[in-house]
Amino acid sequence: MLSLAHAALALAVVPQTPQFLRIHDDVALRLDGSQLPSQTASASAPITSIVCGSAVAARHGDPTPGAGTLSLNGFLNSPNVDGSGRAVFYSAVSGSARNQGIFVADGASVQAIAVGCGPGGGSGAFGGGLGDPTPIGGTFSGFFAGTYFVPATNRPGDVLFLADIDNGPVNRALFLRQSASGSIVKVAAPGDASPAGGTLAAVGPGSIDDAGNVVFLALGAGGPAQQILRWSGGVLTKVAAVGDPAPGGGTYSQVGGETVNFGDGTTVPVGPLPDVNAKGEVVFNAQATGAVAAGIVRVSGATHQWFVTTSDVTPIGGTFESLYAANLSDVGEVAFYSSVKLSPTQSTGAWFAGKPGAWRKVLALNDPIDGGTCWGLAASRNPMQSISSDGTVGLFVYVFVSWSFARQEFVLVDRFGAFSIIAREGDATPLGGSYGNLGGWPSRLALHGVYGALTPGAPGGVTSAHFGFTECAPLPTTYCTAKVNSLGCTPAIASMGLSSASGTSGFVVSASQVLNNKTGLLTYGFAGRANLPLGGGTLCVTGPLKRTPLLNSGGNPPPNDCSGVLTIDMNSFAAGLLGGTPSALLSAPGTLVDCQYWSRDPGFSVPNNMSLSDALEYVVGL
């Protein structure tokens, strides 16, 4: 293992270390560069600018509620981000006996989710009852630092975290702070009955969806050794366990698989953590005894499906080899890092995104980027979310520029391969000074993102900080093929203005070249694009479909011609000002929306007496 100590990745070092994969914290896996084939191209992919702004979220030395100050290490303790753009993170606390906690910060203030005391989690020593009271008795003692234990959060700002307990009924539990009520509830603890059978011997961290449903890792006693469980409204159910039937035959021989042993003699399952999206779909890493040896499984309802396996061919050739955690978007795409076996003697590694049958490379080792070459990456980790609904992926990259210069960067890569820089080592930070070593895992949600970094030269002795950034919503895109109507005209969809979750007007979606004086409506969905036959034309939006209220195309008086125009302001509709039942997702920043106009066309016989425009895809802005 290669330790990426601060000096090892400092700006302008001679990058003579092997190419590497950052696994967790400052630990990285050496990659044998002699086996890596050249994948360099004549020029880097284009650099765009979809980062609209950045600001400090929390800094080393910020005051904490009650007493003390944050003792941040943005390089080792990555933050997470909620739907309001606030950083959610673990930090030690200086100057107080209540010396650690889980916090939320927005740059103006720091709020405590839970505060403890004493040595860290897993030490076996407790803090003498000085921590906040827990909902099951006793007080919070040690929390867990590092990449494996980054708190999970969601759009509403619920926070999921693991903590040790002083003088409670158990020594440790997984807790959920519910933003709506401000209360903390227990999700699971060792000794609880397991829905997989027996009891829980250990609980680990997990992920959370916007409805507050949790998926997490556990170890069993008197039942399956490894388990993935779901918590919803106080009820535990099983997602998967060792010994369960695997898709296509055989049984699961491993779910998760990464564990950490602590000084108190306990073992905690830490990864790869499962992920869950707004549709309730779950993805997790598994090994099995059947025809498929290993891969990533998607669970939808009660159906388990191998989403990607170690025998699948990759978009860059060869086959997937070691797969890391899959980050799951609300439209069902995943992003993940995998090593790639190109031949018996050649290997490489890359981030990939997409769905079965539609995988795309995000970034591979040796790819050109930002005037250099990709020399190192970080493994995909939940609950830090990398992929958004529009398919853009945020990740850490170590850029080799020359034999005397290299730097760390956080970048965004859209689904077409264009890059946008979030932060570069050596560039100025929003608080002054420059970026030093970057934490390996930026996290993104609802057009907001956060990342941690060291900050050499910052004023006031601020050595480390968490930063937030916002993303510009991409411009709407038209796609698909409209149905030529009975008069030979082709309805054309278009938009004017910008989508805004907070606006009540100003984003008009229209279709011209429509038959005059006919009823119509805009259908929309959140599951991406489609290309399916419908009514003699093409359905361009993946269901389940939703609809606006009925509209009238207007235009010239009879007879029929193509002077009609269907139009609706989607900001007004989303705000509830135009009637109907708009989905709440239309008012959620970062939501990917696909839409297509439908209207009557009596010039065609039933069942094809309909007109269909082409389609529009947009992302709901802030």
What's the quaternary structure here?
single chain
What CATH first level of the largest domain would be assigned? Mainly Beta
What gyration radius follows from the Cα positions, in whole Å?
A: 26 Å
**CATH homologous superfamily descriptor of the largest domain:** Peptidase/esterase 'gauge' domain
Helix content: under 10%
- Count of spatially separate domains: 2
CATH topology of the largest domain: Methylamine Dehydrogenase, Chain H
How many β-strand runs? 50
Class by helix and strand content?
A: mainly beta
Estimated share of beta-strand residues: over 45%
Distance between the termini: 42 Å
Reported for the largest beta sheet, the result is:
9 strands, mixed
Summed over residues and divided by their number, the pLDDT gives a mean of 93
> In CATH terms, what is the architecture of the largest domain?
7 Propeller
**What is the number of helices?**
1
Q: What shape does the CA trace take?
A: globular
Describe the structure.
The protein has 622 residues and is mainly beta. The two termini are 42 Å apart. It has 2 domains: 2-471, Methylamine Dehydrogenase, Chain H, CATH 2.130.10; 477-619, Sandwich (Immunoglobulin-like), CATH 2.60.40. Strands 1, 2, 3, 4, 32, 33, 34, 35 and 36 form a 9-stranded mixed sheet that branches. Strands 40, 43, 46, 47, 49 and 50 form a 6-stranded antiparallel sheet that branches. Strands 6, 7, 8, 9 and 10 form a 5-stranded antiparallel sheet that branches. It is built from 1 helix and 50 strands. The longest helix has 5 residues, at 570-574.
